[in-house]
Amino acid sequence: MTQDGTDLLSQVFGFDTFRPGQAEIVRAVASGQDVLAIMPTGGGKSLCFQLPALMRDGVTVVISPLIALMRDQVRGLKELGVEAGALTSGNTEEETNAVWQGLHAGSLKLLYIAPERLASSGTERMLRDAGVGLIAVDEAHCVSQWGHDFRPDYLRIGALRRALDVPLAAFTATADAETRAEIIVRLFGEADPQVFLRGFDRPNLSLAFEVKNQPRRQILDFAAARKGQSGIVYCGTRAKTETIAAALREEGHSACHYHGGMEADDRRHVEGRFAQEDGLIVVATVAFGMGVDKPDIRWVAHADLPKSIEAYYQEIGRAGRDGAPADTLTLYGADDIRFRRQQIDEGLAPPERRSADHGRLNALLGLAEALGCRRQVLLGYFGEAAEPCGNCDLCDAPPEVFDASTAVQKALSAMLRTGESFGAGHLIDILTGRATDKVRQRGHDSLPTFGVGTEFDAKGWQAVFRQMSAHDLMRPDPDRHGALRMTEAARPILRGEAGISFRKDTMAATRHRPEARALVAEEDAPLLAALKAKRRALAEEARVPAYVIFTDRTLIEMAETRPQTLDALARVSGVGAKKLDRYGAAFLEIITGDAPDAVHPARRKLAGRAAGDLFDRLLAVQQDLSRGEDGTGKYLSCTHSTLKQIAERRPSCKDSLERITGMGAQKVDRFGDAFLDVLRDAG
User: Fold this and answer.
1) What is the Cα 373 distance to its own chain's centre?
2) Does 430 fall in a domain?
3) 579, exposed or middle or buried, with CB in 10 Å at 0-12, 13-18, 19+?
4) Looking at the structure, do residues 273 and 371 belong to the same domain, yes or no?
5) Within this chain, do residues 510 and 528 fall inside the same structural domain, yes or no?
6) What is the tens place of the pLDDT at every residue in 353-391?
């Protein structure tokens, strides 16, 4: 057998030569080095651990996230005469028995398991007894919490590697610098793996984006031009998968839907059809995809903006794995961007993670709003330089651009002059000279930037702000409920040291589309998202439905009115005394950004009532007279419960004051007249 495995490559797998980059990875894995390989989808990752498994002694255990993918690979290996098996929940009794027999006989070369099996206490012992000599990890980005397919059980792999003391080879089709760094820490610990970063370019894929304008029709037209070809349509919601699949069938296509809410048998049926049928279109959520190994998918369309640039790359990568030409189309609109921002803001991740996720979304918007070759932008995100590809919509028809430097300076000035404390909606009101109540109340109608942006209407300024995000000139601040803050990249433009161009075509492309009705105004949406995130955390802790904490209607009113005190919060519809007592401080901290001062329980029970204000005034009077009018007397005070009684029952004379509260004569003499004056002033 040759040291580089070329004889096995030919004899077992039937290939005369390695694909670019495979030989070096196979050599490193076979020699027992720790390896992290980032290779493009369809670049032949599987061979890079399957071939070394045949070159090494012992069993190679392959940790893979999807049962369907494991079964496909085991089936393919058996067809090649390789002893391989999988231990999955989908096994028949005969399949499981065959795996155990192969392990005991020492004939099994590759054993596939799901990461969830690592949670079992007996798995490590079983693998040790089986004589595992190598661990291979497929879809390694699942170990990263930066990644879009995070699987908690992948975090156990590092401990397994240390326990078995064997080399580990990890593979993924996409990982940016942050994700790569986390993969290394999580899987390899102190070890220093050899990293192979193979080109991300898939030159056979054509890339195109379009602003949504009758999006269902856009998808149907795209499919019609490719009738009879296998394709995938990715949608943001389960409901949309069903409606688009039905629309495709009405136009004569063979189409079905797929999402995580379907029964397992129904999902398997769709997976089976897609693997076997020519020309089938699957309309799916992202639940369909990872592990799809059909080589002749001719097109992938996104009916909604993906979650991130990494997710986009993974999903379009399912097309054209056979190397033949394949087409992609991604639709996007203002509602998509708002939805993705909301997903980030409602997440429970720490602020720095949410800020990074907003940056990732900006990178995807940068691809959508690109001025030149899309492939250059996409590969640039992954750290690769490229020439214009000639295989994307912008190479075919370069967009018309305009000098946006002055508009960006105006937007940044409005942002900075208002303390980077507001969202795009409020800033656009300032720029267009719209004196709303919110603008007037904050004195923003007297700012130098008020009314300086009349060259665009509100829609035009929304497009300016969108393209500013696409160039990462600003990001929502996760600590301030989505208020926009300037990035370092914007400073040279603000100072006039650099200029910037924007696209004209996407400025007005959505002008005639009716907007989806939002729950709150755009500037209040980030706060509503933060309130929902807090509600979800409290609901999960209490193991109750979210609405039991507060209804959406209550959170909407909180976001719109932004109460600054417990009294103001108590006046929000749906905030009763018990909920105020239990949750008030937590939600007030979200709204104000600071933990509220501690409030005595007696005072808290009066929150939102007129008696609360009386209580505060009585407390202030008492503090002034605690040592008498001249400040030299004996210290006296009433309990908070006493002050609460006075505020609620409002006695009209000293006798009733003493009778109602039980105050002694000494306290009545000290405080009585002053307390009664407060009550009379209150009417």
Assistant:
1) 27
2) yes
3) middle
4) yes
5) no
6) 888 888 889 999 999 999 999 999 999 888 788 899 999
